[in-house]
Every structure is written in C-alpha cells, then in structure tokens.
Amino acid sequence: MKLFNNMFNRSVKFAAPKSADQAPAYLDGFAQAVRFTESLGFMVDNLRLGDTSTDVLDPKGHFVDPVFTAARVKDRRQAAGQCLKWCHYLQPHFARQLGRRVILTAGQLWNKEACVFGPQFEDLDRWVRSGLQANDFVAGGGFKLHAWLTVETGEIIEPTLLSSLAKFGHPSYGDYAGATVWGRDPHVLNGHRYVPLAVGTELVEQVAERSFVPLLAKVPDELDLQVYAVLGKQ
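^ thats the sequence. predicted structure below, dont judge the formating
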C-alpha cells in the first residue's frame, strides 16, 4: 500500500506560487508539503499537523530562552543566513521545551509582492536526489530556500530571519539581530507569507548528505560555520 501511495503521489503535479496572491492558506500549504514529501518516499505519519484550533506558543516568549540555553547556543546572531542549519539543530530542543511535535519546514518566503526565497517543487526534488551543488548557490553563498519550524498546532517559529535581515538588510533591522519571532501566517513578521513545500528532518538530512558543502550542525561549535565561508575555500 505504501508503494502504491508513493506511485500515486508521484503522478500528482505540485505547483508552488509564482506570485504572492497565489500563496495558499498556511494549513493548506502545509498539507500539500506533506503530500509532496511523501511522494519522495519519506515517512510522514509524524509530520502531519494535529489540533490547529488552539495556540500553544506563549505570547511573551518565555519558551524561547530555555531552548537556546539547552541547545548551548553561544551567539544567536550567528543564525544570519543559516536558516536550514539552525532550524534543523533547534528543532528537537523546541519540541522538548514545548512538549509538542515541532516540524522542520522548508519552502518559500514572500514579503508583499517580493519573493524573498522562491524555490519550486522541482528544486526540492532535485536537491533530495542530488544535494545542493555549486550552481545552486548565488553570489555571497546563499541558496533560494528558506527554513523555519512549524508546531503541530500550525504555529510558526522563526529563529533566523531577523538575524539575516539585521546582517544583510536595511540598517534599521540591526537591533533585531539574534531575535526569534513566532505566530501564525501571515502575522509572524510584518505580513511576510510562509509557503511550505517540504517537511521533516529526514528529507533535510538526505539533502545535506548529498550536498558538496556542510549544511547542518551536530554540535554548537558548528553553528557558526557559514556556508559562504566554505564556498570561498573551494
């Protein structure tokens, strides 16, 4: 039955938004990301959302500091430009702190009509099969993918974007380096829209295993290693 389901899902055409007004409601987008992930052969039983009617994230953020302490993070500002690595590393720590399933999520990020990160399903499919290669990286060492965390309630935890904006964006963001934000799409940060395309640590770890640069961290000291620094050594 599992093989049949995968073959059926592979025949389904997945379409990512090409404009902001095509972005689906978050829960619908997440459900599609689960189906896509399953179509690639990954187990998704623990990746589906649960009861989404109630918020569990404390509005005052009392859950945040204990996570970074348990994860032994030395400098939260180093999350800039490292969404995949940091979200993968922090995922189990947020799950333990919240007592809820927390799901590593990858996809698109839109700011009004501007596509900040715009991978397509075809990109995720290729990366799962072949990893990230040199031609996937743009000037400065980044690649067109954003990662964040989704609680089983459908709420989003965003531990890296403000650090990235502080380092690479307008100077007005400078004071927000190291900050974490959370909430429900589209109210996480100034109306940014989150569009899930793929979910789960297993998928991300397979991409990392097949990539030509180290993408993930196993210990805190590896969190500071920037991908673009590695690229410069190639």
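The helical segments are 2-10, 26-39, 64-70, 83-98, 121-130, 161-168, 201-209, 227-231.
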